Amino acid sequence: ELKVEQNPLFLSMQEGKNYTIYCNYSTTSDRLYWYRQDPGKSLESLFVLLSNGAVKQEGRLMASLDTKARLSTLHITAAVHDLSATYFCAVEGTYKYIFGTGTRLKVLA
Amino acid sequence: KAGVTQTPRYLIKTRGQQVTLSCSPISGHRSVSWYQQTPGQGLQFLFEYFSETQRNKGNFPGRFSGRQFSNSRSEMNVSTLELGDSALYLCASSLAQGVNEQFFGPGTRLTVL
Hints:
The complex is a heterodimer of chains A (109) and B (113).
Chain A: E1 4-7, E2 10-14, E3 19-25, E4 32-37, E5 43-49, E6 55-58, E7 61-66, E8 71-76, E9 85-92, E10 97-99, E11 103-108
Chain B: E1 5-7, E2 10-13, E3 19-24, E4 31-38, E5 42-50, E6 53-57, E7 64-68, E8 74-78, E9 87-94, E10 103-104, E11 108-112
Parallel strand pairs in B: 2-11
Antiparallel strand pairs in B: 1-3, 3-8, 4-5, 4-9, 5-6, 7-8, 9-10, 9-11
């Protein structure tokens, strides 16, 4: 059974600091997605990672995928308050997507 | 291009009732997936439809069912509602070929009293 774990579950960080969110999954997959969810809102697609070694960057966020280690990371550079949200990774299985537990990020001014 | 739409946005029901939620995917998207989101269980996969066929189903009781129409619109039904069914129900659509990036609708907030 495909399982996806994220850590940390909660992250409180100061503006300007860097941090990394980790996403581990249990079975072979080379398709991984990152989403952002603001309170009371739906999910917004951030990154699509389709192969081993894939790296995508958008603003202060950078995502990477290591399919051999079954690990994806979401790196936050010089955090700003607007990045406060919950971040989910999702791994594509056979006709389904399994989501991680989510990481609730709070950036403090 | 219009996004994924879901109706209704909010719903209040009582235990024992049934409910039907609707999802219209992005034009051209043929795959529709449904998820239940709760604070305790997170985002859980309910089912996926493609060309009117259910291709996969999550670990939910038979009270949860769905269908997809020829225009790719989808509905999900929950019968004999329980308090624990209170959740945000999210629908997502994708092309189902090539990159299967999912795009989510705004969700339906179901409250069971």
